Input
Amino acid sequence: MNHLPRVLLVDDDADFAAIHRGILEAAGYQVVWAGTPGDAWARLQAEALDLVITDLMMDRLDAGFSLARRIKADPRLARVPIIVISGVGGRLGFDFRPQGPEELAAMGADAYFPKPVDSQALTRKIRELLDTREGP
Amino acid sequence: MNARILVVDDELGMREGCRRVLTAEGYDVQIAEDGPAGLDLFRAQPGFAAALVDLKMPRMGGLELIEQMRRLDEDVVILVITAYATIDTAVEATKRGAYGYIPKPFTPNELLLPVRNGLERRALALEARRLRQEHERAKATFISLVAHEVRNPLAAVEGFLDAVLGAGPDRLGGEERALIERARLRTRALNDLLRDLLSLSAIETGNFVLRPAPLDLRGVVDEAVRAHRDNAAQKPLRLVWDAPADPPPAVRADADAMRSIVFNLLDNAVKYTPAGGQVSVSLAQDAAGVRITVADTGIGMSEEECARAFDEFFRARNEWTAHIPGTGLGLSLVKRLVAMQGGTVAVQSARGRGSAFTVSLPSTVL
Output
């Protein structure tokens, strides 16, 4: 990759956006922030982005999933890795935590992290996803 | 819908008499001529509001029938019809679950009055239970809503604290770092509390789903012990983990539930053991099942406190615990999580000598 990898950060909560931006920039990534899934989609159409990190519950309960599926369904974007970060980790009827790689794939996501995110685990995962993508 | 009443009597005259009187009052009456026939009807058509049972019948006696019916339906009003209205038989019938008795012979009013009273009592009991359940559900829903709303901002606070802690030594001095680290410990404890609250409310609303999967218990205990090292060192107290040398075979259990169980027991042990004491953890696995023991040399509990230790919100209140924060939720959650997986948790304790909690899970070794 001959440019700083660009990460699209999708979260309607400006505080989490700031926290995650801090982690990503410290790890050497360029960050583009979108506050809504609609905004995120517009950015994806307009510019080249290497990876998407999205919140789950935004304007709708499953907004993050819809966005992930939409990205995976678009032939030009299908190869962009997607990481879901969510605070919905409880056992509350709507437990979105994926229980295995199959469920993760069904979500359209390549990785899942609960909030608050473990910064080292997150950056390790990002590196891994980008390396696989750049691989031979 | 009219209340359904079952009449079980081997005398035709008595059956028909009861049927006539009760039907005229608008009840939906069914009859059976002996115990087994009555029980079959009772079983085949659940939801009888009341049953009139003759005490003395061939094949199956009234007392036995009462007991069987009670086992099937805890709300049905059972009235005993008896020609031998002695105190003894009445008391015996009540013991087995009858609401009252009607001595033979009786007038229509002598039959109707206890039936009406019994049905009214049943209606009140059902209503009370419905309200109680509704209340429990509302409480659990409220708790989970609040916990979720609190959790999100808390996660943001933790994120910011982590961001500060991640700064290099040139930006964050040693003293400031220590303060932020303490703040981070408190947010972690708050997070644990929220997690317990959410688990309990999910269990109460029936939304808690166990996901048993092959699990390395040694790893779970390992992780819990590591997470408590700092707290133990701060006190200071000795934290001894008697880890099995070879990894024991995986068991089928819910990873989150097991983690929650071990973390809660260790939290308590460290919390209630004064400086200089010892907390030891052991794991035993054999054909009979799995046993995890967390023992401490802490303040211990009286017999009475032991009996209530697993009650929701119970906390032993005495001079030793007054300054120790806690909600009284941990052990009640532990008990529920263990029970949901078919296990038991027991405590052995003596005031001033320490406590030992043992979680036993049935053998589900893969």
